[in-house]
């Protein structure tokens, strides 16, 4: 499974996911509400933000991926950092 899919899975469970040396994805829940003036409902949703400054590894993503793939934390961290390096090159 690709790194992006693990980030997506974790964003369903947590408010933010830090991608080491890249940045953090944050979610904000918008609850459903009734608009009385139009008698309509707004469905619940999530907004995703990205903050580049929050790039210190908190271990959540790498631990989750290492456990899912049955590899060591250090090996997974190396793999994640290689992917992040590729993302940065592509963005430049």
Low-confidence stretches: none
- Please give the number of β-strands: 5
- Rough shape? elongated
Helix content range = 40-55%
Which series of helices and strands comes N to C? HEEEEEHH
> Which class best fits the helix and strand makeup?
alpha+beta
* Number of contiguous helices: 3
What radius of gyration results from the CA coordinates? 17 Å
Q: What portion of the residues fall into strands of 2 or more residues?
A: 25-35%
Side by side, the strands of the main sheet go 1-2-5
- The CA-CA distance between the termini, in Å, is 25 Å
Mean pLDDT: 94
Main traits of this protein?
single chain, 92 residues, alpha+beta, 3-stranded antiparallel sheet, two-stranded antiparallel sheet
Lay out the secondary structure.
Layout: H1 3-13, E1 16-19, E2 23-30, E3 33-35, E4 40-42, E5 45-51, H2 60-69, H3 73-91
Describe this protein's structure.
The chain is an alpha+beta fold and 92 residues long. The protein is built from three helices and five strands. It has a three-stranded antiparallel β-sheet with strand order 1-2-5. A two-stranded antiparallel sheet has the order 3-4. The protein is elongated.
């Amino acid at each position: 499974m690709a790194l992006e899919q693990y980030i997506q899975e974790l964003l369903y469970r947590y408010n933010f996911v830090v991608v080491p040396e890249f940045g953090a994805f944050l979610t904000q829940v918008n609850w459903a509400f009734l608009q009385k003036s139009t008698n309509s409902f707004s469905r619940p949703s999530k907004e995703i933000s990205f903050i580049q400054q929050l790039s210190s590894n908190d271990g959540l993503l790498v631990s989750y991926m290492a456990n899912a793939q049955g590899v060591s934390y250090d090996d997974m961290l190396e793999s994640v950092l290689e992917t992040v390096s590729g993302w940065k090159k592509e963005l430049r």
